[in-house]
Design goal:
The chain is α+β, with helices and mostly antiparallel strands. Helices cover 25% and strands 21% of the residues. Helix 2 packs antiparallel against helix 3. The protein is globular.
Length: 137
């Protein structure tokens, strides 16, 4: 098992474009950079959307934490950052995807995702990138 990182930050009102976020609309879905409705569906997106690939859980969580801190200054007041990190480690070690996302202003959304691959919920989705094919970011 390994992990792929994805991210999307932008006008949160665009998240209402659900056809672009569902693979049943294959053409729109494949071209869209909006986050999919289900985390495992990230693996259906073009490999160019992968922001990093890791075998070690700690490396994946480090990337997630760096990206989240960069885009959400001050973090989430409802969940202390260290607790968030520890929970991400537990989730990834259990082969579950991790999504850290939130509104950062009235209209701006920031989302960072680490997806287990192969994905236990979506086992038929092929891997977009093998770990050796792309260095860790």
């Amino acid at each position: 098992m390994h992990f792929h990182g994805y991210e999307w930050t932008g006008d949160g009102r665009l998240l209402a474009k659900e056809p672009e976020r569902r693979p049943i609309e294959a053409a729109r879905f494949g071209l869209s950079e909006l986050p999919p409705m289900m985390t495992g569906w990230w693996l259906l997106r073009p490999a160019a959307q992968v922001r990093g690939t890791w075998v070690a859980v700690s490396n994946a969580v480090d990337w997630l934490a760096e990206r989240y801190e960069e885009h959400t200054p001050g973090g989430d007041p409802q969940l202390p950052f260290e607790a968030r990190r520890l929970r991400a480690v537990e989730q990834l070690e259990g082969a579950s995807d991790v999504a850290w996302s939130r509104w950062v202003s009235d209209s701006r959304w920031s989302g960072h995702y680490v997806i287990a691959c192969p994905n236990r919920i979506w086992p038929d989705i092929p891997c977009p990138i093998r770990p050796a094919a792309r260095p860790s970011a």
